[in-house]
Amino acid sequence: MEHNWWKESVVYQIYPRSFNDSNGDGIGDIPGIIQKLDYLNYLGVDVIWLSPVYQSPNDDNGYDISHYDQIMEDFGTMEDWQNLLEEVHKRDMKLIMDLVVNHTSDEHEWFQDAKKSKDSKYREYYIWRSGKNGKEPNNWGATFGGSAWKYNEETDDYYLHLFSPKQPDLNWENEELREDIYAMMRKWLDRGIDGFRMDVINFISKTPGLPDAPKKENEVYGSGGQFFMNGPRIHEFLQEMNQKVLKDYDVMTVGEMPGVGVEEAKKYTDLSRNELQMVFQFEHMDLDSGSGGKWDLKTLDLKDLKESISRWQTGLHEIGWNSLYLNNHDQPRVVSRFGDHDNYHDKSAKMLGTFLHMLQGTPFIYQGEELGMTNIEFDSIEDYRDIETINFYNEQVHEKGRDKNEVMKSIYTKGRDNARTPVQWDDSPNAGFTTGEPWIKVNENYKKINAEKALREDQSIFHYYRQLIRLRKEHSVIVYGDYELILPEHEKVFAYTRSLNDEMLLVLTNFSDDTVKINVPDIKMTNSEVLIGNYEDQEDFQSQLTIQPYEARVYKGKCI
Ligand code: NOJ
Q: Where is the Glycosyl hydrolase family 13 catalytic domain (predicted)?
């Protein structure tokens, strides 16, 4: 298998608004990030992915960009950003930027001009349609609620927005738009960045005609996914982007792709096709939702997780490359989600980290994950900041009259603000995140869970993550080894092997609070020793093993 630096890297995602505030305005900023680079370097990560820091009115916290070449004032200046890049590189780390080009902000000058007149130079940069029988052009719903179309008075027609009305979709059919995007990308790459994470990049090609979507009887809007996810020209656009921009730089690329399956992902990540290197897929993040979508709560069945992860591990093997993640700024905290933050906080956080970091692919850590930060439960909807959460609440409680407590339960379990509370640096007021009033409340458990304490305690989740990251650098079997699922039917233990030449790993992770005995199937491994684990007493490798609640144990040995 081809060896590449980005396969051997561990990435750390920063959501700047919530990371570290240097000037007391309650909002994280770029100088605040610089102050913490030594911390990240000590953790051992290789690459930092910065969620958007561009100018934005913050309807969706920076995922609505009004100027691609300016830094959001709340976060600092272009000089601060240059400084950040330099300081990252000085520490031998890399920096990748978020590329949000499925849509802009409605405050972007292209849209401001486009909406004024049908003759605007930028008119074709967006997707406009006339109304149908006095209503929207089609029945698609937007991700953040309501119709995906908004009426524009000046031109007496509608524009498409798959997210909020303040995020109009760009028209990738238009060549001039594409050239402008490529020029913008080159500009950032020429500044010396090391790659892009591409926001909903598999949404950029829409099916011509934008047909009505299938709709459930009780729903007002249809779900148009099949007409914009992995659309007809997506591979062509990505190949063009590669040809016109990416091929000239040695950079990392990962495309966020809701609705992507293994077969499509092979096409996106097969290097010989010259598209991207990795995708963020969502299958494993959808396993704890019912048919009603994200807010429809369901308990994870471990067998579903095994089936999905294994299909991706073997599916992309030797063809493409997996990204590995359990957290990001859109997902609840994994220790609260698949672990047990009340009774097995440290153990389950370490178990989940082990499970992920021993897989084949490039691991992505989300800020605070290395501390085991947990979900939050604010009493009042007034304390929430996320547009998706607030719209969901209003729609369910105010429009549909659903029980408030039931709706809050979904928000507590799945809301994006779970991931967006400030990073807990120490036990001083506001967890040391800011000296001012934070833009969103700090999780009240910060006296127990914070970085300063984690650094001090050598058994902390932080130090365990350091070890996981270091092991990946020391053992190429972790990066390149073949994956094989064992005990597929076991309901509590997720177990798999990795093997490369004569080296072998056996990874055992207990996703339950029961002590379980397992019969290890016939694995041809000798000279095995425990490489890493989250319990102190470790059994020697033998045919029957006892796995403690939320235990993670990795044996390393030689293949016979
Ligand atoms: C995916 C991003 O991760 C999310 O935060 C954002 O709301 C949407 N794309 C729209 O840009």
A: 13-420
DSSP bridge partners of 365:
12
Instruction: Evaluate whether 235 touches 267 at the Cβ level (below 8 Å).
Output: yes
CA distances from 230 to 159, 224, 531 (A): 21, 12, 41
Contacts of 435 (CB under 8 A, 6+ apart): 21, 24
Nearest protein CA to atom 10 of ligand 1, as residue: 63
Best CA proximity match to 504, nearest among 530, 481, 531, 538: 481
pTM surpassing 0.85?
A: yes
- Model confidence pLDDT, tens digit, residues 385-409: 999 999 999 999 999 999 999 999 9
Residue 233 is which amino acid? R
Confidence of residue 537 (pLDDT cuts 50, 70, 90): confident
Which DSSP string corresponds to 504-522? EEEEEEE-SSS-EEEE---
Q: Which of 46, 256, 264, 388 is catalytic?
A: 256
Q: Give the pLDDT confidence of 215-234 residue by residue, as tens digits.
A: 988 889 999 999 999 999 99
Q: What is the pLDDT of residue 105?
A: 99
Is residue 256 part of the annotated active site? The answer reads yes
Q: Residue ranges of the domains in the chain?
A: 11-104+175-465, 109-160, 479-559
Can you tell me the mean pLDDT for 100-122? 98
Cα separation, 101 vs 94, in Å, equals 22
Instruction: Name the nearest CA neighbour of 313 among 467, 494, 555.
Output: 494
Q: Does domain 11-104+175-465 have CATH number 3.20.20.80?
A: yes
Protein residues with CB under 6 Å of any ligand 1 atom: 60, 63, 100, 163, 199-200, 256, 329-330
DSSP string, 10-41: -EEEE-GGGT--SSSSSS--HHHHHHTHHHHH
pLDDT at 82: 98
The DSSP code for 232 is T
Distance CA 395, CA 393 (A): 5
Residue 294 gets which letter from DSSP?
Answer: E
Contact criterion met (CB below 8 Å) for 245 and 278: no
pLDDT of the residue at 524: 85
* Architecture of the domain defined by 109-160: Alpha-Beta Complex (3.90)
Class at the top of the CATH hierarchy for domain 479-559: mainly beta
pLDDT tens digits for range 253-291: 999 999 999 999 999 999 999 999 999 999 999 999 999
Q: In a mutational test of the pocket of ligand 1, which residue from 161, 170, 200, 328 has the highest number of ligand atoms less than 8 Å from its CB?
A: 200
Do residues 548 and 493 make contact, with C-beta atoms less than 8 angstroms apart? no
Amino acid at the residue 345: H
Work out whether strand 157-160 and strand 149-152 pair parallel, antiparallel, or are unpaired: antiparallel
Name the nearest CA neighbour of 556 among 533, 516, 527. Answer: 527
> 10 Å Cβ neighbour count for 23?
14
CA dihedral 459, 463, 469, 473 (to 10 degrees): -80
